[in-house]
Amino acid sequence: MWANVNTSKTIGWAGKDGEGKPLPNNTKVAMTLTMAPEYNVAADGTISGLGKGATWSVPVTIDNEAPTVHQLYFSSDALTGSKLLNFDVQDNQYIAAIQIFNEAGNQAPGPDFSQSDRGQCPGDGKRGCERNP
Question: HSE-up of 111 (CA within 13 Å, CB side)?
Fold first, then answer.
């Protein structure tokens, strides 16, 4: 009997080599995942009879280097009341996210950034992101 079953699995690889040592910064690896139904797995764990699409591979770059903040300052406009948090952040790979937290440790809501923003708010052409608390 066939059933449409969805499942979620965690990949437990932490960017380490076969001896458990962390891979060097900027190492490029291919993370490959092969999925097999139970009837393709023998009692000894060998897998056979898989077709195209059973294996998925994605390139990964090890990034152990923290990003750096080159500038960070607050500005406001007394006439409009707008408030800006301006920053210039750089990383040797990609900046996937920017998170800002308040003094209580709660994440402050704010705009989403993409790689093309290069420190700017999407579509506004300014160096900071306008945000009114």
Answer: 17
CA–CA dist 70, 117 (Å, integer): 16
DSSP string, 91-123: -SS-------B-TTSPBPP-----GGGTTS-TT
Q: Print burial letters for 34-55: b (CB count within 10 Å at least 16), e (below 16).
A: eeeeeeeeeeeeeeeeeeeeee
What confidence tens digit (pLDDT) does each residue in 5-26 have? 777 778 888 889 989 999 999 9
Q: Report the amino acid identity of residue 29.
A: V
Query: DSSP letter at 127?
Result: S
Distance CA 90, CA 101 (A): 19
b/e burial code for range 73-82 (CB count within 10 A of at least 16 → b) = eeeeeeeeee
**DSSP notation for 15-73:** SB-TTSPBPPTT-EEEEEEE---GGGB-TTS-B----TTSEEEEEEE---SPPEEEEEE
Q: What is the pTM of this model?
A: 0.53
Question: Can you give the length of the chain in residues?
Answer: 133
